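fold-stage: in
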Amino acid sequence: MITKFDNYYDQICIDLKKIVSDREYTGDGSSSKAFAYWYLKNTSVLNENDIEEILIDGNNDNGIDAYYLDEREHILNLYQFKFPAKKNNNKEIDLSAITKIYGTLNSILKGDIENLISRATNIGFENLLGLLKDQPVYEINVVFVSYNKGVISEGNINYIDEQENILGNDIALHHSCITRENIVNIFEKVHRRNTLDLSFKYKNLQLANNVNESDNDDTYIESWVGVINGKALIQAVHNDLTRIFDENIRLYEKGSSINEGIKNTAENNETAKMFYFYNNGITLICDSAKTSPGNNSVLLKGVSIVNGAQTVNSLASLFQDNKLNDQVSVLIRIIQIQDYKQRAKITEYLNSQTPIKESYFIANNVIIRNLQEDLFNFNYYLERQINEYTYRSKYDDMSKYQDFTILPVEDAVHHYIGGYLNDKANIAKSNKSVLFEPNQIEENIKDITAEKVIKVDVIYRRISEIITTYRKNRRNDQNSEFSKFLGIKQPEYDSNLFSFVNTGDILILNCVINIQNRTNDSSIDMAIKDSILLIKDVIQSQSDFIDSAPATLTKSSRLFTKVQSQVEHKYSGESSM
């Protein structure tokens, strides 16, 4: 019997085949590699280079297909991806795959990292080990992403619980499962087949404040305030958790003390009845709202939760574990509005009362506002707010911008600092969130200009293309694009000497800018080529550079400084190596 999951499988395969072709994934696991890229591309804020850096490609990955460190919370996510044959999408993850990743975790947490690094034969896994050695990690979350039913059998669940109890003595250890149901929702979101509609029962709901937002009497903002049972709320949204936060600039902060407090309150018999009074509630924004007072239900079209991600996800986590108390009630506010600018302002202001990613709040900085206006003159659309262009396109006429280059403000500032500020360049790679902190950002962007932003954007995009050719070569030694770019004949080319390229985007960018600042006739390709060869020589000149994991090395302030010094000496006719 054909199910919806079979039909979606075929459609997802179309996306994956394109990724396999574009990125030249090879071998029996090419679909799973493409699936990993597809998932991270569509569920994270990471760009193409970031994703490729954290993928553990090839053999001897020890059951870990990707990793991502949340530098703010020091939470390490370890991913295992499975895209099984179509006939197996109704099964669950094999125990052998589960034991492999937890066996690796046991070796990492109970073993000698230095010894593991010395024995690692996979560069991606070596980079992960290097990160664990050099960065503080207070919590690990194992994420199983599989186009099947996930982990459902009692034996598999018991094994995971047992392993997490054993290893949890050393570090906070959790797991989560992204199943075929979640993946279908992601696919729908990616392809924007329809806006999200939501219907639920409420305990009470009444019309609240209404505003005529313009001189046009036909346009209004309407709002309702009410109360909904916690379980009723989660039952209404649980199948759409991957889409319901489309316009929310905050992501769920798994494991934070605030969310643990929310869960404790909602689980405990003594405090659950007070949840309404202790919690700020949630705000939903929608294109239209229709209420049915007779049966206490409401239908929202084009809906998104713009405030309350922590509350909803915390309650959903309890609901999944059958621990959500029946007495939990949640304050809800519904805002019906179709004007993009007001929707964006509402979202921003609702999320400005609690700490969030610093880069989100430079949108109204006068320098950034002026930068956006200046970039319009060069056919660049600087997105001051997250996904600004996409959401404005839903409500405003954006035809005059249709041929513009879309550039997120975080990328613009990040690449500008990485390229032009030598003393901050390594931080742009190792901990870019620091660059956006209030006590840093004014100093970091005081000299930013449209011309500099465009220059680093063009160079960075070209560097990304060259890095992609290196990755293709690593996967397929018959591919010679990268070696040809460097002007090295294939028999003389050793890809291991250029392993830094995989994670070296900002290092190369900084080097290119420094070279071009000293040479008036250096083309972008020539400067990139010279930068890669120069960095390679600098690394090969020092044993401690050679012995470092590539991902650790390309964040090193010492390597950045050494490369900057070598550029200065080389282009003044000297050598410092």
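fold-stage: in (second)
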Amino acid sequence: MQTKDILKNLFSLSFILSATLSWAQTWEVYDAELNLKNRLLYQDITLLSEDVRIGKTEEGFFLLNSNFEKSVSLEGKEIYQYLAPWILVKNESGIGAYHEYGQKVLELKYDEVEVFFNLLLAKKGNEYWVYERGKGTTRSLGILEEAYIGSRGQVITKRNGQYFLPLTSISHQAFDLIQDHGGDYLLAKNQNGYGLINMEGRIVLDLVIDTLLHTRGNFYYGFDEDQYLLVEGDPIKANVRYNSFHKITFEDGLMLEYIHGKLRRIMKEDGILLDDVGMTEVKLLEQDLYSIKYRDDKLGLLGRNGWLVTPTDSIAEIKKGSSGFFPALSLNGKWGFINSNGEWLIAPGFEGVQAFENEHAPFRSGNYWGLIDKSGNRKISPEWEEINITNDGIALAKKSGKIFLLNTQGNQIDEEGFEKICRLPNGLLLAKKGEKTGLISNNGEVKLSPIFDRLIPEGQFGYQASKDGKSGLVSEEGENLIPIAYEAILYDEFENLILAKSAYEPIILIEEESSKKKRKKGQ
């Protein structure tokens, strides 16, 4: 072969290698001291869990070991979803599944895949399949109207308007209704009535109850023939915790019992919460919190464990409080704070108040908010559209679309304000000004100027900082730990590593001129 042919072939090889490698990416791996530990050649790396890492190359996707080396090849064009311990992959043919240990369990051909621990439910068109890891097999459930996995792993199907539990001992028994409410039991109905089914598919309350509704957890409200029932699920046999021939209503989470047409009892899911005469109105303010009014116009606040505020005749409305201070509306239409005995701690003189937080509470005058202390003294004047108190006592106040930091002495910490402020678990604040983000302390000290497109806390390593499409790592003091020059930064919290992604374009150059210089004259 002539020299020019060899050079021509080498140049062709150089072009092919360059074209291929130009698509690659290098990932620099840094240890806890930010020392460069390794370099990896992947287009992309995804950290799914402590033990599951995915690497992408031109050849496809791979499961990686703890050293980020390829261990198992995965089919598919994309990682569709990770639902431990299952990795769902997808290509133009459909969705398939791998176990996180690398075992392929579903071919890539399904429209949808639902998972629950060692169970997978797959759908293609109107046909469903189920894979049980304990059996290691995939079998068809047939053509169905609907199928899904319940909150405790029961597969529930619907065919011809009826419901079935195909993986249980009652798989061929049809039901008019099966409902999953997130507890340990399924509420079921057939032509005879309602009942309960446990996680294994055993009927623990015979389907004979006229009416049965879920209340909370594993508790149910029922009516059968002429009596009302409060039922608790049980793995062997459900228990009737309370029954009454008097009317018990259940609406919007509130259960009330009436005796001879008069309100007598407030019920909880397994029995009586309050038995008292003279009640005329009960409002459920939130779960386990009730406002109760009596015939003599007294008003009280009841909690799960008894009275939070004993009934008093000096208030028209009462709300949830804190630190022994309860927001209350007086009969003259002004708000203040009372104690658990219904006595005024802060006289009613405000148009609105919120609960105390760190010794201060927001109050409203007209359309604007300020702050008072527990003596009722105004600490911040009412000039703010909205005001909230952080856990460390700093107030976030909104005006004209900007958020400002205020201390509890009423002093404005920052002058210009921010478009958005987000409090971090370490007490610092991410603050957005314009389209840029910075970091400030709760006393207003600027830790990182708002010059970044994005800041993300990365454990002990500081903050992932992004700017102009590039990412790096900066400390709280503003030191560049890793230059903002990378395409992406990943924090492996399990191995305590930082992975930094950069473009890598190795090019093989063969200089024809060098070859020419070695030739002798005349050759």
